[in-house]
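TASK: fixed-backbone design
INPUT:
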């Protein structure tokens, strides 16, 4: 299979790709700031007063980072895998932007497809866990 694009050879093209990659990195960074600082609230919990598939993830990660592994796993056992997959996806979009000049080439790269598949798998597991908890499994729904 021929390469998707030729590597940047001219300084202006390399600079343009770097600007796009920095823009993508900035978007990922600023979208994560409210969650990292704990100043965001879940719109599902706020408006529906019901847990969503991601409910408890931020609290689970905070518990994990404070060394309380048991409480973290009880709050949301997939918080860490979900975080790792999302971080990998962010890194891959930045890499693809730097390499190809746009994040939209993600699906055309092997690592991009792998990151999408991994994200879909973990999010499917999050959904299965949420359905199970709604039915009373694994300590029931996470408190909102």
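OUTPUT:
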């Amino acid at each position: 299979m021929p390469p998707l694009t030729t590597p940047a050879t001219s300084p202006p093209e390399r600079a343009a790709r770097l600007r796009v990659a920095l823009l993508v990195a900035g978007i990922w960074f600023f979208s994560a700031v409210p969650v990292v600082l704990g100043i965001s609230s879940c719109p599902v919990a706020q408006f529906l007063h019901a847990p969503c598939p991601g409910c408890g993830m931020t609290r689970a990660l905070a518990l994990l980072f404070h060394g309380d592994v048991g409480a973290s796993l009880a709050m949301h056992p997939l918080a860490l895998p979900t975080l790792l997959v999302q971080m990998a996806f962010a890194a891959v979009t930045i890499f693809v932007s730097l390499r190809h000049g746009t994040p939209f080439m993600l699906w055309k790269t092997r690592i991009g497809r792998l990151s999408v598949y991994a994200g879909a798998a973990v999010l499917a597991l999050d959904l299965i866990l949420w359905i199970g908890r709604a039915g009373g499994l694994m300590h029931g729904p996470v408190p909102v």
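COMMENT: Residues 11-134 form one domain.
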